[in-house]
Amino acid sequence: MQLRYLTKNLEQQVTQRTKELQSSQMQLIQSEKMSALGNLVAGVAHEINNPIGFVHGNVNHIEGYSKDLLGLIKLYQQCFPQPGKEIEAETEAIDLEYLQEDLPKLINSTQEGIKRIRNISTSLRTFSRADSEHPTEFNIHDGLDSTILILKHRLKADENRPVIEVICNYGSIPQVECYAGQLNQVFMNLLANAIDALEESNRGKSFEDIQANPNIITIITEFSQDNYSAIIRIIDNGIGMSDEVKGKVFDHLFTTKAVGKGTGLGLAIARQIIVEKHHGSIDINSTEGEGTEFVITIPVRNRVSFDIL
């Protein structure tokens, strides 16, 4: 009898340890994937930044040269209103009047494109920011903006639905002492889940139906009343969750997604990063059929800083 009990107890322990080992292995794989993604993104940002620097410098010179040339042409036209048939024919052939009007617009458009590319490069570097051994000061809003940019391709309109609107209501909060790369990973998980929930809620709906009740993700940040913590709320009007799902959503390996679309680790890792690494909290408010709100609260000064002082 005692042997049977011991055998059963041993089997339970082996099963429990096996689950823990599998969970740890999956977390390690997920962390390695995020690390690899960060390195890839940082590399892409670096490769973009170098050539765009040359283009930016050259287009500024082109702008100056074109102004000089257009000014010279205008002066020629004033001094020689009748330049001769050959020049008049060539002027008409190249449509000089249109060229003088359009060239500055083309240069301005190019400069705007360069500005956008440089902003993208900056956002990529922000998202892929490597964490040091100790927490460092970080602008939470930069992290959120860079994550939104990374996910922008999933927000765009397609033939099945209009654009997913992201509303950012940023409050006045100081820089937060944190592990920026890991915090960006949390933002990525939560925003990707919000997009998934919205896409799930769109099933069976026409483009017009979705347009009448548009997909919206709202991000709200604020400083706590005690001036101790930063609060980040990420809200969607997707399918929401049942009480049963809410109770399990932070469990390791739990997922409601189809096979191959979810590991069940995203929210578990997010909770680990917020609670264990940043000594904060992550809570969920959700109503089935209405939407979900994740509330992250993290101290502005990390506990590691207090330990060092």
From TrEMBL:
Catalysed reactions, as listed in the record: ATP + protein L-histidine = ADP + protein N-phospho-L-histidine
Name of the top EC class for this enzyme: transferase
Entry EC no(s): 2.7.13.3
GO molecular function annotation: phosphorelay sensor kinase activity
Pfam families registered for this protein in UniProt: HATPase_c
Keyword Transferase carried by entry: yes
Domain of life of the organism encoding this protein: Bacteria
CDD domains associated with the record: HisKA
Sequence ranges assigned to domain Histidine kinase in this UniProt record: 43-302
Keywords, sorted A to Z: Kinase, Phosphoprotein, Transferase, Two-component regulatory system
Name of this chain's protein: histidine kinase
Lineage: Bacteria, Bacillati, Cyanobacteriota, Cyanophyceae, Nostocales
